[in-house]
DNA sequence: GCAAGGACGTA
DNA sequence: GTACGTCCTTGCA
């Protein structure tokens, strides 16, 4: 008899890092480990059959939950990060795979797979059988028998090695330095950082083996510890004897698990094609299906894919999970995906297939009866995923009224459900609703269950918008996938809109909103449109969205962008949706008072300017101003812009003012005040929502090259702060009664990132010691002590530090500091000398962008520069500077994204009430109940400061400063 | 009515 | 020297 035990859980975890990522091609479900697992079972059944074929077989899995080890030692396996997101759906699938191969899948509550395997192995050995354990887990090495009756077989795929590798007593000796029966004693001493088994601190495998080989076993060693010569080692063993004993209990496998199935129950069964092939076909494993077809001499084509498991079935493929750690990204980068094979080929084939399906407007459907609606929802439930789009009266999700909902469950389909199309009315009264529409309440009530069903994936283009519309109707959409964000993760912001994506990937021109609703003054809102043309437009959009999803999603796996999308894009969208929905309170009175004040002062400046110029002119016209300054007044030193106009920017005017031209100063002052009025004091009140009374910005998650967010309508990321008048505007952002605002900002995040990425020891040391980084730089460069340093010296160093981040040039630095080009060049040279590593970093980025056409952030975000090899020298120089800046700015952006994604959950876990309202690149603004800020701030700081972990361990400390106050100016 | 350019607010 | 969005004027349709 020969028993084969397969370590199912161990295989999945190890194979995950060893195998290239692979998604099921029709819906992106990650299945790489499942496929590897099936290949392994196939290998075991074929290769082993050549030697001594197993007569009995089982696959053993870990059961989730606590085991007896947790009661012995509460920290056991406490360091384990949660399973990577892509792995989670593969756990149940490997069990399904096992059953598909007609092999018992065994797991038992309260026991680890290792204990169950130990139990069966000992039972079989005692019965005189041979035992093979397919596992590379070192914890199982204690079971190996010197006589070969129990052996391990390593089945984890490793490049350049045979698929199956035996582990016997010799291999155990190599690994632990002892015979198998003493493995647990060695493990008790050296511990295990992966499982968090403590061991004796400071004793590694080698020392442990030496000690055990000298004293025979752990207890003898501990009782004779006094005899050990080395004093440090002796003391460690005496002090930690108990820890060693606990460790031994943790690593010792239980060999008497009360198993339900006896050995006879593990007798091998012939594979049943009618269970095997439906599974393999549902997984879309073509190669292995073919191989097993040959092996079993059966025709796979006779079987249909398992309906429970087929693509888009009811399986949950989208529920939000804990973020994957960097090992995902690293494994993928290491996977070295070759175009034309594996996932890359899938993606290419899928693209070609989808692109070939023509758009057919006649196939679209308008839902006007409850029966049609019910049928549509039944299709959604059956498919498990669908594309959705809302049609509304406004681009502003907070103001938009729902006019229709459009759904697509399959390519070529589109169901438009009109609910808010209105008859033309007069000015005072709307004309009521057009006939033939289901009541909005009924439609929303019917959609709510599927929109909130965690097992049904909702696919959209810019889904954040639809989420916000639905949440105003009491519906929380989840889980979601977003074609815009997938495209952004893959290609950056270059193609954003649905129309552009459709044109680029599907070679299809969609109906534009302008064609449908008119442009300019004649533009109708969606509710004023006829249902039929509106339905065509809407249905085409969801159809195209679903097609794009099929094209783009497989590219994530093919192009190593899954981790980026899953950890930094997809989970952020709902967070932003909630921030936008919350909005922030802006005090109308403060703005009104400021506006009056600014207007008066601006009027005075305007009169003064006319006086000084000797004529009336439009101060807002750079053209007129240039003609007055450099034409009429004949001033020297005017420069022209690239279009030939006189340059009249603030820097030019400051120069003139310094040379004694009072008009220039007047204009600068006037411009500042009118800017503040036009952009802030006059414009912001118009953004106060009539119902919430708050200002709701909209964040764009997919429009910045480096991975930053941008904010618009209104832009709340450029609220003034530098000037005194500007800060008065900031003070109009307030907390409501009973609350305070908390502002938490990263200190010098980009310089810290630079210190880490470029590995600049001097910078790292300075941050570690908490020094004033600009003063330190100045001191290094100019040899001036930090004590009593003139502010001008520090200012120069600060400008240089920023310059470095921006991809410094002598030209730029000389402009910034108002110094000679040659002097600026000397500064840069000195900087490179004082901070070796900076130049190497810059050169490496310049080289990368020329070779690859992109650079990357620490978290794997690619920043593309298509014209890195442009024939235009100034364009090339620009790309060089941008490619130096992008990894720094982008890594900082990735870090704060991670903080935002974790923030709400951590606040909740800590029992702290705090609403995240705004993000300003390196700053987060919260609204917190007054008096609780001291509880909120430490949590906020911790989440932000540890946001890079565990994916990246920065070699510099991250520091966050946080303050609470009634308004944003004081909190900042 | 719309797009481009200049200017300027932020990190 | 990097990354954005908005306001205003200008010039052309």
UniProtKB/TrEMBL annotation:
<feature type="domain" description="DNA-directed DNA polymerase family A palm">
    <location>
        <begin position="726"/>
        <end position="932"/>
    </location>
</feature>
<dbReference type="InterPro" id="IPR019760">
    <property type="entry name" value="DNA-dir_DNA_pol_A_CS"/>
</dbReference>
<dbReference type="InterPro" id="IPR008918">
    <property type="entry name" value="HhH2"/>
</dbReference>
<dbReference type="InterPro" id="IPR043502">
    <property type="entry name" value="DNA/RNA_pol_sf"/>
</dbReference>
<dbReference type="InterPro" id="IPR036279">
    <property type="entry name" value="5-3_exonuclease_C_sf"/>
</dbReference>
<dbReference type="InterPro" id="IPR020046">
    <property type="entry name" value="5-3_exonucl_a-hlix_arch_N"/>
</dbReference>
<dbReference type="Pfam" id="PF00476">
    <property type="entry name" value="DNA_pol_A"/>
</dbReference>
<dbReference type="InterPro" id="IPR002421">
    <property type="entry name" value="5-3_exonuclease"/>
</dbReference>
<dbReference type="GO" id="GO:0003677">
    <property type="term" value="F:DNA binding"/>
</dbReference>
<dbReference type="InterPro" id="IPR029060">
    <property type="entry name" value="PIN-like_dom_sf"/>
</dbReference>
<protein>
    <recommendedName>
        <fullName>DNA polymerase I</fullName>
        <ecNumber>2.7.7.7</ecNumber>
    </recommendedName>
</protein>
<dbReference type="InterPro" id="IPR036397">
    <property type="entry name" value="RNaseH_sf"/>
</dbReference>
<comment type="similarity">
    <text>Belongs to the DNA polymerase type-A family.</text>
</comment>
<dbReference type="GO" id="GO:0006302">
    <property type="term" value="P:double-strand break repair"/>
</dbReference>
<dbReference type="InterPro" id="IPR012337">
    <property type="entry name" value="RNaseH-like_sf"/>
</dbReference>
<dbReference type="Pfam" id="PF01367">
    <property type="entry name" value="5_3_exonuc"/>
</dbReference>
<dbReference type="GO" id="GO:0006261">
    <property type="term" value="P:DNA-templated DNA replication"/>
</dbReference>
<dbReference type="GO" id="GO:0003887">
    <property type="term" value="F:DNA-directed DNA polymerase activity"/>
</dbReference>
<dbReference type="InterPro" id="IPR002298">
    <property type="entry name" value="DNA_polymerase_A"/>
</dbReference>
<keyword id="KW-0378">Hydrolase</keyword>
<dbReference type="InterPro" id="IPR002562">
    <property type="entry name" value="3'-5'_exonuclease_dom"/>
</dbReference>
<keyword id="KW-0238">DNA-binding</keyword>
<keyword id="KW-0548">Nucleotidyltransferase</keyword>
<feature type="domain" description="5'-3' exonuclease">
    <location>
        <begin position="1"/>
        <end position="269"/>
    </location>
</feature>
<dbReference type="InterPro" id="IPR001098">
    <property type="entry name" value="DNA-dir_DNA_pol_A_palm_dom"/>
</dbReference>
<keyword id="KW-0227">DNA damage</keyword>
<dbReference type="InterPro" id="IPR018320">
    <property type="entry name" value="DNA_polymerase_1"/>
</dbReference>
<dbReference type="GO" id="GO:0008409">
    <property type="term" value="F:5'-3' exonuclease activity"/>
</dbReference>
<dbReference type="GO" id="GO:0008408">
    <property type="term" value="F:3'-5' exonuclease activity"/>
</dbReference>
<keyword id="KW-0239">DNA-directed DNA polymerase</keyword>
<dbReference type="Pfam" id="PF01612">
    <property type="entry name" value="DNA_pol_A_exo1"/>
</dbReference>
<comment type="function">
    <text>In addition to polymerase activity, this DNA polymerase exhibits 3'-5' and 5'-3' exonuclease activity.</text>
</comment>
<keyword id="KW-0540">Nuclease</keyword>
<keyword id="KW-0269">Exonuclease</keyword>
<keyword id="KW-0808">Transferase</keyword>
<feature type="domain" description="3'-5' exonuclease">
    <location>
        <begin position="364"/>
        <end position="557"/>
    </location>
</feature>
<dbReference type="Pfam" id="PF02739">
    <property type="entry name" value="5_3_exonuc_N"/>
</dbReference>
<keyword id="KW-0234">DNA repair</keyword>
<keyword id="KW-0235">DNA replication</keyword>
<dbReference type="InterPro" id="IPR020045">
    <property type="entry name" value="DNA_polI_H3TH"/>
</dbReference>
<comment type="subunit">
    <text>Single-chain monomer with multiple functions.</text>
</comment>
């Amino acid at each position: 008899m020969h028993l084969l035990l397969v370590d199912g859980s161990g295989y999945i975890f190890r194979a995950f890092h060893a195998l290239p990522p692979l998604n099921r091609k029709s819906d992106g479900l990650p299945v790489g480990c499942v496929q590897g697992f099936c290949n392994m079972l196939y290998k075991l059944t074929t290769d082993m059959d050549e030697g001594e074929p197993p007569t009995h077989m089982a696959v053993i899995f870990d059961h989730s939950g606590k085991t007896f080890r947790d009661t012995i030692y509460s920290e056991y396996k406490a360091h384990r990060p949660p399973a990577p997101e892509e792995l989670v759906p593969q756990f149940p699938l490997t069990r399904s795979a096992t059953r598909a191969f007609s092999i018992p899948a065994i797991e038992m509550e309260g026991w680890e797979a290792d204990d169950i395997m130990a139990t069966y192995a000992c039972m079989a050995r005692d019965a005189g059988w041979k035992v093979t354990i397919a596992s590379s887990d070192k914890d199982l090495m204690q079971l190996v028998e010197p006589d070969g009756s129990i052996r391990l077989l390593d089945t984890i795929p490793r490049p350049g090695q045979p698929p199956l590798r035996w582990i016997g007593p010799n291999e155990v000796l190599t690994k632990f330095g002892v015979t198998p029966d003493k493995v647990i004693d060695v493990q008790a001493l050296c511990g295990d950082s992966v499982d968090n088994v403590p061991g004796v601190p400071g004793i590694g495998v080698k020392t442990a083996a030496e000690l055990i080989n000298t004293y025979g076993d752990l207890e003898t060693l501990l009782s004779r510890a006094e005899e050990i010569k080395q004093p440090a080692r002796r003391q460690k063993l005496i002090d930690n004897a108990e820890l060693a004993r606990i460790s031994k209990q943790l690593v010792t496998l239980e060999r008497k698990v009360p198993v339900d199935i006896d050995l006879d129950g593990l007798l091998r069964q012939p594979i049943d094609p009618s269970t095997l092939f439906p599974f393999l076909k549902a997984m879309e494993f073509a190669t292995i299906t073919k191989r097993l077809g040959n092996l079993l001499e059966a025709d796979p084509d006779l079987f249909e894919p398992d309906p429970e498991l087929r693509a888009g079935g009811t399986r949950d493929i989208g529920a939000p999970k804990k973020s994957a750690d960097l090992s995902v990204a690293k494994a993928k980068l290491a996977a070295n995906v070759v175009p034309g094979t594996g996932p890359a080929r899938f993606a290419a084939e899928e693209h070609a297939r989808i692109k070939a399906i023509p758009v057919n407007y006649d196939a679209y459907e308008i839902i006007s009866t409850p029966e049609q609606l019910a049928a549509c929802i039944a299709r959604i439930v059956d498919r498990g995923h669908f594309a959705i789009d809302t049609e509304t009266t406004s681009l502003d999700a907070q103001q938009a009224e729902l006019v229709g909902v459009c759904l697509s469950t399959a390519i070529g389909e589109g169901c438009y459900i009109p609910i808010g199309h209105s008859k033309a009315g007069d000015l005072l009264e709307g004309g009521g609703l057009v006939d033939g529409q289901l009541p909005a309440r009924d439609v929303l009530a019917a959609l709510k269950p599927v929109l909130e069903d965690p097992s049904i994936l909702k696919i959209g283009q810019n889904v954040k918008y639809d989420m916000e519309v639905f949440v105003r109707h009491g519906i929380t959409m989840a889980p979601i996938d977003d074609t815009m964000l997938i495209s952004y993760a893959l290609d950056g912001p270059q193609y954003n809109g649905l129309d552009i994506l459709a044109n680029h990937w599907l070679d299809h021109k969609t109906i534009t909103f302008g064609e449908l609703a008119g442009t300019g003054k004649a533009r109708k809102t969606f509710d004023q449109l006829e249902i039929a043309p509106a339905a065509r437009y809407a249905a085409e959009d969801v159809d195209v969205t679903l097609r794009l999803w099929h094209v783009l999603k497989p590219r994530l796996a093919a192009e190593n962008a899954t981790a980026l999308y899953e950890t930094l894009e997809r989970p952020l969208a709902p967070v932003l949706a909630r921030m936008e929905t919350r909005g922030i309170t802006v005090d109308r009175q403060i703005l009104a008072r400021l506006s009056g004040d600014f207007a008066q002062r601006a009027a005075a400046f305007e009169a003064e300017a006319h006086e000084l110029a000797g004529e009336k002119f439009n101060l807002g016209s750079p053209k007129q101003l240039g003609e007055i300054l450099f034409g009429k007044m004949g001033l020297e030193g005017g420069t022209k812009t690239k279009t030939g106009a006189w340059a009249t920017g603030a820097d030019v005017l400051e120069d003139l003012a310094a040379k004694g031209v009072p008009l220039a100063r007047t204009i600068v002052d006037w411009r500042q005040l009118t800017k503040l009025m036009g952009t802030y004091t006059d414009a912001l009140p118009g953004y106060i929502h009539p119902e919430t009374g708050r200002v709701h910005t909209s964040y764009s998650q997919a429009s910045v090259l480096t991975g930053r967010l941008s904010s618009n309508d209104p832009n709340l990321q450029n609220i003034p702060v530098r000037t005194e008048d500007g800060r008065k505007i900031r003070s109009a952002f307030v907390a409501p009664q009973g609350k305070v605002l908390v502002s938490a900002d990263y200190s010098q995040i980009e310089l810290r990132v630079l210190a880490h990425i470029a590995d600049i020891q001097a910078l790292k040391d300075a941050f570690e010691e908490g020094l004033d980084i600009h003063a330190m730089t100045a001191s290094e460069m100019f040899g001036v002590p930090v004590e009593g340093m003139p502010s001008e010296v520090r200012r120069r160093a600060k400008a240089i530090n920023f310059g470095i981040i921006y991809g410094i040039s002598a030209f730029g630095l000389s402009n910034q500091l108002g110094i000679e080009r040659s002097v600026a060049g000397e500064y840069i040279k000195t900087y490179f000398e004082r901070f070796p590593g900076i130049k190497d970093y810059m050169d490496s980025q310049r080289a990368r962008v020329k070779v690859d056409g992109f650079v990357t952030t620490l978290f794997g975000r690619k920043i593309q520069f298509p014209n890195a090899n442009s024939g235009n020298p100034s364009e090339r120089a620009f790309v060089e500077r941008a490619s130096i800046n992008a990894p720094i700015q982008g890594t900082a952006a990735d870090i704060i994204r991670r903080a935002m994604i974790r923030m709400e959950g951590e606040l909740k876990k800590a029992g702290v009430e705090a609403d995240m309202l705004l993000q300003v690149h390196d700053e987060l603004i919260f609204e917190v109940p007054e008096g609780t800020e001291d509880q909120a701030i430490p949590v906020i700081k911790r989440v932000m400061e540890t946001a890079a972990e565990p994916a990246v361990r920065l070699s510099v400390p991250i520091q966050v400063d946080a303050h609470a106050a009634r308004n944003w100016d004081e909190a900042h």
